[in-house]
DNA sequence: ATTAGGG
DNA sequence: CCCTAAT
């Protein structure tokens, strides 16, 4: 007997009739997945968080819950208690003052149905997001190699990412700063910092606006650009000051999206940029990992006991921030050493989970560069019932129902209903755990730019949005062919009508692929990212050891071959190669250009690695190749008429500097060659 | 791993 | 941004 059914995932017990599903879901199945995911990240994160929560208290475990399965989360979860199968999540108020909103959600689930009842309003999207992340991350963290207690998942830690530090001067000033005098003159006495600041603000007005809920804690001046932050040391205790006067003006771009990095700056005098980012890609990975492990551990036997492990994890989770913080920093000491950040394979993987990137972008602070990603094929559209309620500049919405992607279930006729339920649950759990990502639909259109703020996207309390929807779609990246990395023929490409899904094997969830993806929304729960995007080099290796083809055996399916019962999210990409996603486009902000120009003026055009190190050390998404390319385009841009230029306009003065620096260094290069020419001639 | 260029 | 060849 083969049951083929789509399940509506109701948050409020609200089921969306299949008939009412938008056709979009299906239609988009064929779309090439190249999505970068998330747009309106907050929304996605919120949704993801919900889903994950749900997962944690999946029916499988819910049996014993009997009404006690209530999950309440406040801000960041600090500790978790388990009562039999029931988990109670508690969190502590964020002490940063940035998030003052109170609790935002509570969930109640019924055991017999895959329904989650989510009520309560989200006082702030950020909070919601934070919630989702924390709950998710918490566990994942445990799984991570960091070990319990080492992780952080609150915004505080996140702050580290958005940090810039001054660079120390290297080499002799004369060589290092050919443009030093010139630049200074160019500033007309205006402090570099100020200059940059104006530049940033001019371009990205809202970036640092006071309205930003995520205000920085105590650091004074932070410059935030569209997708990166510029940090300028204010105090003089920077080493660079002494040895290299102008160094204090160095601009460094930090990628807020990178989760992995901890902080770049060790100097107290440095300003902290962006408040925080709860979970980064790392978080995503962790989440995924968590999900995966959980899934495999629990699903199969549906035993209790399993949770006990979590306890330990959870506790560890509540490590004190200090510790986590320290850890984080230490980890990122040698960014370049372990740089494989842009490895594509890794990127794709990350997508599977919600990326943290963007999670914290609130409308107020938003302003990120536009990213253009292609949408991933969505296999299903979740039921949408979103209502907005004006409240300050916050958007409140409640998702009445969510439909999960289509699942195929195959089960013997002789199986019991209970067995069927479990099977279905597992399938759902599996999908939710790692194979989904969240998409946002606005008026029928998929919102692909995860970096846009809700406001920019048109989702604001001012608008009576009646057409905001979320979708759960198979996460291409995430969905790795678990079992057969080589890509067995049987794994159908996403365009296949309705490929069968199979339970992800641990391997699949694994990260082999990892992430980098910019921001895969939920399934991968990224960065963000988005993560970062992209950025975390460390793949999740949890699956490595235990994962074997046999893992499938773990699937708790009644006496039948796993294969038979296997429910697999379809729409997975069969080939890893296909998983390769083009990195999301992240236009350089003026601040970044400024930093680049300054670095090039100082270092020249042939030392991109140094440029990267000097000015973009913390911007994981900017590789030296990117910088080189950007310089190339800048030179080109500077040469064409302003009318021909596109994108965010770059201040003419910057372009002028580009040209002069380019000319200068070209000349230098020529001289170098001239010098060598004679030598070679002599040699010959 | 970097650099340099073409696409 | 991607892809490659050459270092």
UniProtKB/TrEMBL annotation:
Q: Which UniProt keywords apply?
A: DNA-binding
Q: Does the keyword DNA-binding apply?
A: yes
Q: Report domain HTH myb-type positions.
A: 581-639
Q: What Pfam families does the entry give? A: Myb_DNA-binding, Ubiquitin_TPR1
Which portions of the sequence form the region Disordered?
163-204, 504-524
Q: Does the keyword Cell division apply?
A: no
PROSITE patterns this protein is in?
Answer: HTH_MYB, MYB_LIKE, UBIQUITIN_2
Stretches assigned to the Ubiquitin-like domain? 395-465
Show where the Myb-like domain sits: 580-635
Instruction: List the Gene3D superfamilies.
Output: 1.10.246.220
The record's GO molecular-function terms, alphabetically, read:
telomeric DNA binding
Name this polypeptide is given: Telomere repeat-binding protein 5
Q: What gene makes this protein?
A: LOC104601042
